[in-house]
Amino acid sequence: MTSLHEHGLSRWIAYSPPVAWTVRQLRELLIGAIKQGPVPQHVAFVMDGNRRFAREHHIETVEGHNMGFEALARILEVCYKAGVKVVTIYAFSIENFKRSKHEVDALMELAKLKLGQLAEHGALLDRYGAAIRILGNRSLVKPDVIEAIDRAVAITANNKRAILNVCFPYTSRDEITTAIKSTVEQFSTPLDSLQTPSKRTFSESHITQQIRKQMLEEDTDGRSGAWESRSASPASMKGAKSVEEGRSSSTSTTINPSDKDETHSATPNYPDPETITAATLNEHMLTAGAPPLDLLVRTSGVERLSDFMLWQCHENTSIVFLKCLWPEFDLWQFLPVLVEWQWQKKKLQEQQKSRAHSKAD
Ligand SMILES: CC(C)=CCC/C(C)=C/CC/C(C)=C/COP(=O)(O)OP(=O)(O)O
């Protein structure tokens, strides 16, 4: 009985107008202080622990997810106020489809409702100029949910100051597989049919292709009928080989034997797979265009990535595991993480500076 009274009393104190006002001022002050230092440009959250929170507090699982959404709204406000440009959240893993139908349906309804609320004019995303992007496998989502999320995306599409990436339904393996498929597709499409040939005019591969094309034309003039003796692989072409000296045998031009008597414009001209780099794959990821991931936070004491942001985590991404459950997560837990990140960032910047100095000497 006493503890109930104490609980009621502490709630009354916490929510009494003067205390609530002081807490609000303190939040503003702390966020303002964070804003002074380097601020992570891209932060990702694994919002873990909603069901455990629900069990601990003897509430329905769905209510736990609801409180998880409240925590998300609080933390988005902190991020955008502090100057974070992109927030990426793990809202629904493809693995989550294995949960009970009741819970999956409830999470889908929650997404429909909450994304709509977030996107409303005058609501959080509107206030901070943040656009919603849905990263995930649309083919797994029912049409009514697609319709709702597309509406939220459309409402916020003109917001240009920040981004909220909602991973839904997502796994990194699915993202990376799709990115590789589309890269292969791009590199199997003749350059002539691509939209941006002018961009590549002065690229190394373009110049190599031009030289190769010229050699092939000279070859055709001199010794017609020699095509059949060559394999479709240009690696076996003498001329191409000499141009490629010191490079891999993988090349960009596929010669179709049936094209031998046609003008060179009919020769398919493929992008050079040798030019595929991490940056190429980056452009095919769902986070294309986003700044590099600076910070990834997972709550609930579980220390694994669970197939989230596997591609995006780079050598300088800080990965932080916190003990608190997601619905408990707020500025008070996030602040030490941000301060530590700022400290690490400054150290890194100093190291980079002194490395640049010693190179210049
Ligand atoms: C805008 C939008 C779509 C909001 C979504 C709201 C929200 C917080 C969703 C998270 C859902 C989820 C699977 C959380 C993981 O905790 P868990 O259920 O795995 O908890 P546990 O680890 O305790 O089992």
Automatic annotation (TrEMBL):
The protein's matches in CDD domains, at most eight in alphabetical order, are given as: Cis_IPPS
Major enzyme class: transferase
Q: Which InterPro entries match?
A: UPP_synth-like, UPP_synth-like_CS, UPP_synth-like_sf
Keywords on record: Transferase
Q: Name one GO cellular component term.
A: endoplasmic reticulum
Could you tell me the EC number(s) of this protein?
2.5.1.-
Q: Which Gene3D superfamilies does the UniProt entry name for this protein?
A: Decaprenyl diphosphate synthase-like
One Pfam family linked to the record: Prenyltransf
Asked if the record carries the keyword Transferase, the reply is yes
One Gene Ontology term from the biological process aspect of the record: polyprenol biosynthetic process
Name a GO molecular-function annotation.
ditrans,polycis-polyprenyl diphosphate synthase [(2E,6E)-farnesyl diphosphate specific] activity
Biased-composition ranges, Polar residues, are 188-212, 248-257
Q: Which SUPFAM superfamilies match?
A: Undecaprenyl diphosphate synthase (SSF64005)
**NCBIfam families to which the protein is assigned, alphabetical:** uppS
Family statement drawn from the similarity comment of this UniProt entry: Belongs to the UPP synthase family.
* The protein's name in its UniProt record: Alkyl transferase
